[in-house]
Every structure is written in C-alpha cells, then in structure tokens.
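JOB MANIFEST
job_type = single_chain_structure
chain_count = 1
residues = 602
[input]
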Amino acid sequence: MANNVRNKRNTTTSDKKEYSFIHLLPIIAVLSVIPLITSRYKYKTNLRVFDWFAGPDTTYDFFLYYKSIGIIIASVCMVLWLVYMLLSEERKFIWDKKFIPLAIYAVITFLSACFSKNSYFSFHGIYEQFESVWVLIGYFIIAYYCFFVLQSEAVIKQVMRWFVIGITAMSALGLSQAFYHDFFRTKLGTQLITSFEQKEGLDFVFELGRVYLSVYNPNYVGFYVTLIVPILVALIFTTKKLWQRIGYAFLIVSLIIILFASQSRAGIITIIISLLIMLICMRKVFIKNWKITIAAIGIFIAAFIGINAMNHNILLDRMKSMFSAAEETYSLKSILTNNDNVTINYNDNSLIIKVSQDTEGNDVFELTDGENNAINYALMEDNINYSINDERFPFTFTSVRVEGFSGFEVMIEGKHWYFSNLMKEGDTTYYALTGVMSLIKLTEQDDTIDFLEKRYHFANMRGYIWARTIPLLKKYFLLGSGPDTFVIAFPNDDLVGLYNSGHDYEVVTKPHCMYLQIAVQTGMFSLIAIMTFFIWYLVSSIRLYWTNSYEGYLPKVGVSIFVSVIGYLILAVTNDSCVTIAPIFYALIGMGLGINYKLKSQ
C-alpha cells in the first residue's frame, strides 16, 4: 500500500514537471484568452465584384478577425512545441487512430482551398466569417496537441485553473449584459475595443439586456454554455473544498442566467438534453449527492422563470415558435429576367412585361399573361404610374429615368422592383436592379426539398436558407466551393426567395448548420471524414463511461467533455462553426481523447 501511494506521488510530481507553462500556454490561450478577444478591425470586403453583394466595400469587424489570428498563432506555437518536444526532449510520439479521419478532413480542406475558384477568400478569410483554411487546419492541430499534452491529472488540473479564470471573466461580461449594464457599451468598454480611438458609444445590433458575450451572436452563447456547464458540474464532484464547490456553483448559475438572457432557444433545449445525459451516465454520483442535484434543478427552473419574467415572457414565446412548422404560401412565386421580357409569376399566374421605346425615347409597355392574352393597363391620376386592369395582377408600374438608371419599376405588395434592358451597351436582355445598383439576372432556382420550400420560416427562418443550400451539395460534392466561401456559393441573387423569407436587403453568409457548411465548403468527403471522427469519439466514450465507477478526477472530467461534445454536435444542426467557439470545442475533444487514452491504458 505504501509503495502504491509513493508511486502515485512520484507520478504526480513527474506530471507537474512534464510540461512547463510555455507548453500549456497555447492551450490556455485557446480556452481562456482568445474567446475574450474583442477589437475593431477595419477591412475591405473584396466582395463588390459580385453583383449580388449588398454589403459595404469597407467595414468593421469586432469579434472574428483577431480571434482567427489568435487561433493561427496558437496553432503555430503548438506545432513548434511538438517538434521541440519530440526532437530536443526526445518524448515518445503518441498517436490515436481516431485522429486519422480528422487528419483526412484537414488534408481535404487544404485541397479544397487550393482548387477553389475563390481561393483568395479560402486562404485569407471572408466577410463576417474569417474561418480560413489555416483556421480549419488549426482546429486539427489544437485537438491533437491537447490530446498529446493533456493526459495526466496534474496537467489537466493546471489547465483547468486557467480555464475557470477565463470562464469567470466571460461570466462577468455576460452578467453585465444580462442585467442591462453591458460592459462593451460603457465608455471604458468602447475605448478598449476601439484601441482608445473612439470615445463615443458604438451602435449595437442586439437590444440591451440580450446577452451576446464576446462570441459575436447570441446563438453562439448557447454553444459556449453547452460546452462549459457540464465541465463545471463535474468539477463540483472533483473537490471537497466548500469554497471551490460554491465557486463552481456560482459560475453554473451565472451561465444559466446568461443562456436564458441570450434567448438561444436551441441552447436551452440542448443544455437540458446534455445534463440529462450526464445525469444518466453519472447516475451513481448524482444519487450519492442527491441534495446538490435537487438544488441544481431548482436553481435552473428558478433562473428560467426569473429571466422569462424580466423579458415579458419572451423565453416561453420563443420556445413555442421554435417548433412551429406551419405551411406557408407566397403570392410572389418567381421573377425571371429573360432575353426579351420580364416574367412575374404571382399566385401561379404569369405576367409577361416587354418594353420598347418610341421615336421620342418614351417607354412603350406590352403586357401579356402566360397564354399570350393582352393585359390592359391605365395611367393613374398622378400621371406617373400605371395600374393593371386585371385582378390577377394587383401591381402598379412606371418608367424610371434617374442618374445611373434607365428602366422601369414594378410595385408588388408594397415593394419596389426595378428592371432594365437599356443599361448595357449592345445587350438588350433584361436585368433586375439590386439594392446596391448592380444589375443581375433572375433565374429559376434549383429543385429543393418540398417541405422546406413551403416553410421558409421553419427553425427561425432557417427553412429558406436550408432549401437553397441543400441543392448546392450536388454542385460541390467533391471538394466543395472552398473554405470560407459559403456566401459566394449561396444564391444571394435569389431576390424573390430572399424577399419571401424575410431576408431581402441581407447577404446570407452562412447556412446555420455546421454540417451543411462543411459539405458545401469542403465537400461531402470532408463531411464524412469529420463525422467519422466525431462518431468514433462518441462511441468509444459511451463504452468507457456507461459503466464507469467514476472514482478519481479523470473519469469525471472525461465524461463531462463527452457530454459537452454531444451538446455541441446537437447545436451544430442549427448553428455554424465559428472562430469564437469552435477552438474551445476542438481543445476539449482533444482533451477528452487524451483522458480516454489514459483511462484505457490504466
């Protein structure tokens, strides 16, 4: 017995010496520092070359660019430390075959970037994303490095201390936002994120009281809380010190409040599922500590009721609307700009508009229906607009001659649509005018899933985006459109679909589904590879933890990471990979694989 105690003590001592702080620093940066980075970055979008792009030529980023740079720097440091440890310190190379599919994913991702028609964006990052190929490869490096380094209890505890510090800072920021005192809206906060260049307040997209942390969007708050809470729950059971338990409990309560205040419906549902899975896996531990379990459930319910009341029942209302899948109808079915006409399909009736000019240059309109019957129209009292004398087409139209545009306008359901066949020299085909004065062709959209085509607002307006994304899988099956190029691959020129779905005057930059994001950007084979990696980890973890006795530190942390990964992958159905959260996920899954590897070898 004495020898066993002495051996454990010696092992712990060697673990503490095994990795210096410099070796752990990149991991600490990924878990605790990079997620907090918020700083203004001015840049050119380089997307104005696309006629459909309605965004600015020059804009600002606050949450993404510098995080992506931090990820790349941390990844490079990890590679250097690995090489140094393997060569100079003569450490044994450790490998787990589960990393093979993730390595394949990284290789395919690089090939996709090289062969992409828009490889510039794949290598440099793009508007409102900045998840370049270097960042995606960095995820693989982060996962493997954490696996290599984080296998012993002493080292994991050392990293966890810094991780908890980062969680505490993030929680403080979130609570300031939840209770209507957003730090970023203060004078000091504004100066910090603008490098003291601006003293006036900034314009914020989200209303006061809604939490977005430093992760760009309230939806990603759900990701963060789902990843963190199970780990904090496990840490409560790894210590007997009352002050530590109280501290972990306070952070859990804070994060739950933050989640509710973010109004992330998917996040709320997912955290419940995650904690139920954790409860089942660690059933013996929770039963043994039943008082803590009951108290935690009570606090969760109280926090939900409190935040819901503070926000005028918004949580319950949003939860109800989340499951709405009512069939929708759209009167405006399509608009096609053809070689010799503009065809408007309204309630399955076709209106065909042709325009010519008389000898004085005035427009002469010819209107027919789908059966080539003439449609009469008359000049309105304002002597400018024309009304159509056919109840099938409740539109008005008029000629437009202004600086920079010559054509005609059609008013449909209160929205102005502009068309022209005069703007391009030697080209008399018809074009539609975008919000940024670009001329584009409106064409038929690819066939899609009928369920989604009739439910554009399904899953909080994701129905339309998914309906237009799924057909892209056929086009980009092999290597995808290239990392970080979804915004280019997506049919942002589908003005009618964008209008019907409530996305008009917007640029769709992401599919709101990580799996579709991967499949479109880097191809189906990359999706298969990374899904194999995820499933392999989950299956091995289920086998390891289902009947585990949870004696000691590593099994408790290991199962909490397993639960966090499940939550992340569930949320990924309705949310994208993002540089604000994905690095934490890959660091944790790497740590989880390291713990599993260690436990299996014992």
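[summary]
The first helix runs from residue 2 to 18.
The chain has three domains: 2-322+511-601, 332-440, 450-500.
exit_status = 0
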